[in-house]
Design brief:
By secondary structure, this protein is an alpha/beta fold. 40% of the residues lie in helices and 11% in strands. It has a domain at 195-514. InterPro entries: TOD1_MUCI70 (IPR006852), TOD1_MUCI70_glycTrfase_dom (IPR048354).
């Protein structure tokens, strides 16, 4: 049998090898007589032991009913002890037990990461229920049983083949045609907030010690707090403060031809940015013909990146590099290239006022799944209007702040100032009290968004925090989300980071790529040259005489040495 060894049976009749020895030696009758004698002795011993027992006890020992009663009593005792142990363990105050554990730990990391234990029971129920109903009332009706309803994660690889670090996990996508058919025909309802406008100020003045910029308008703390008080109509700071319209004299300016194109209507766009020539442009892969026809891909670059691309003949007058439509930004508002990248990342609804859905990916990422499939999987199927992945390792803002300080991501005093400010506002370490929220720290390199007032407000306020404090947007995500969720019935789909790694591939920044040594060229090994046997009869040697024989021998030695040299090199 498989699964374990049953051992050797050496019962009362002795070992098989001893009996065989008796047969081989001709002592069969002798061995049988010994067996009879030994059995007679054993019976006499048993009778002697049975005599001292009381008669009543002897009668019950042979009774099957009494044996069954003893067995049942023993089983009840074991069941009671087991129930006591289970109840004791289940009542222990363990946060991670209350949160639940994910069945895909190997895809998060080969080791044990905190974020691998965040997928709670409510997430599992949500995954089970989402297959039974269409995502939106306005969506095309899909079959009652979603094609991905039976999707399960494959078993994890063995420990010997398990790779350390984050990696992608399987994701069930609909075929492109079915994903397109599931796109809602109308926009989602925005809770409470229906009309959102933006503050304009030609001469913004900084009146408080906290950070900010001319581009952001220096909103006061009172204006900041009022922006979290959700009403039906609101006007908030959201970048592009100066100028009659965004893109003209605002500090993030477009060419006139680009500005006209950005005003056009699109159901879906994909956007990215490279500032300071910081990344290498990555071409999307596995994009359907329908997506190439209907979904524009916009890449925002500054003048420095544009000059580099022109010098390398990457960018021509067509303003296209592969699928990407290049949009050059003039008069960037910040000296920090990464902070300039936050403008299109959070404010796409301001740049594209007539777009329904957007997928933002950082410049170092390569999209390898069709946009229709990504939107269906993470928005439409989930009945969500904003989706972002969790951090693969950390889910607590305070832990994330310490990790940023240790890695030198930003000035330590600025990080401490920001975290202390949020702590005074009521931000606490992540705990089970936040369920069904499963993380306070996102992996913010991908944003999947439906452009409706409540999501536009969220990204405006998130940008204002980045403009006021550090550019590390992981630190300000939770405070903005929690403040909005206390006011309105709205939530964010925070999916697993390994699922994000399924549809985008992460590359290195340009400075790291340039520091890497060039790849070692492969050594081509050629087979040794075969001897020339043309015109000779195999197996037959022609004898040589005199000088011909000596010269032939000399030529043979030289040719052999030459062949050895070629084989060596």
């Amino acid at each position: 049998m498989n699964g374990g060894s049953l051992g050797l049976r050496t019962g009362s009749y002795g070992l098989l090898q001893n009996i065989n020895g008796d047969i081989a030696g001709g002592g069969i009758s002798k061995s049988l007589s010994n067996v009879r004698k030994s059995s007679t002795k054993m019976l006499s011993v048993i009778r002697e032991k049975e005599r001292p027992l009381p008669n009543a006890w002897y009668r019950y020992i042979g009774c099957r009913k009494f044996s069954m009663l003893l067995l049942i009593a023993f089983a009840l005792l074991v069941f009671a002890l087991g129930s006591f142990v289970v109840n004791k363990d289940s009542t222990s105050p363990n946060v991670l037990q209350r949160i639940g554990t994910s069945g895909i730990v190997p895809y998060v990391n080969g080791g044990h990461h905190e974020a691998s234990q965040i997928l709670g029971e409510k997430d599992k129920k949500k995954d089970e229920n989402r297959f039974q109903i269409p995502a939106f009332k306005g969506a095309s009706v899909l079959p009652f049983r979603h094609p991905c309803v039976n999707f399960t994660f494959p078993p994890p690889p063995p420990p010997t083949r398990r790779r350390l670090g984050p990696r992608p996990c399987p994701v069930c996508y609909l075929p492109v045609d079915q994903a397109i058919a599931s796109m809602p025909s109308s926009s989602s309802a925005s809770p409470v907030l229906h009309n959102l406008t933006y503050v304009l100020n030609e001469n913004p003045i900084k009146s408080e010690p906290h950070g900010g910029s001319d581009f952001g308008g220096y909103p006061s703390l009172k204006q900041r707090n009022d922006s979290f008080d959700i009403k039906e109509s609101m006007a908030v700071h959201c970048g592009f403060i100066k100028g009659s319209k965004h893109g003209h004299g605002t500090g993030f300016d477009f060419d006139e031809s680009d500005l006209a194109e950005l005003q056009q209507f699109h159901d879906i766009i994909v956007a990215s940015a490279i500032f300071g020539n910081y990344d290498v442009i990555q071409q999307p892969q596995n994009i359907s013909e329908e997506a190439k026809k209907n979904i524009p891909f916009y890449m925002f670059v500054d003048e420095e990146t544009e000059a580099f691309m022109k010098n390398r003949s990457i960018l021509s007058s067509s303003k296209r590099v592969g699928l990407w439509r290049i949009v050059v930004i003039h008069n960037v508002p910040y000296s920090d290239a990464r902070r300039n990248g936050k403008v299109p990342k959070f404010l796409l609804h301001r740049i594209f006022p007539n777009v329904r859905y957007s997928i933002w990916i950082d410049g170092k990422l390569q999209l390898v799944v069709d946009p229709y499939q990504v939107l269906e999987r993470f928005l439409w199927r989930q009945n969500a209007n904003f989706a972002i992945s969790r951090h693969y390792r950390r889910f607590d803002v305070f832990v994330e702040a310490e990790a940023n300080k240790a890695a030198g991501k930003y000035d330590n005093s600025s990080i401490d100032e920001q975290v202390d400010f949020y702590k005074k506002e009521g931000l606490t370490p992540y705990s089970e009290a936040k369920l069904p929220i499963t993380s306070d720290v996102p992996e913010g390199c991908v944003l999947i968004k439906e452009h409706i007032p409540i999501t536009n407000l969220f990204t405006c306020l998130w940008f204002n925090e980045v403009d006021r404090f550090t550019s590390r947007d992981q630190l300000s995500f939770a405070i903005v989300r929690d403040k909005l969720m206390t006011k309105v019935d709205w939530s964010i789909n925070m999916f697993l980071d390994c699922e994000r790694r399924n549809f985008v591939i992460q590359s290195y920044h340009r400075d790291l790529l340039e520091q890497m040594p060039p790849p070692v060229p492969a050594v081509v090994r050629r087979p040794p040259a075969l001897p020339n046997t043309r015109g000779k009869t195999p197996g037959k040697r022609v004898p040589r005489r005199g000088r011909d024989r000596r010269s032939g021998s000399s030529r043979h030695r030289k040719a052999a040495a030459s062949n050895r040299d070629r084989n060596f090199f």
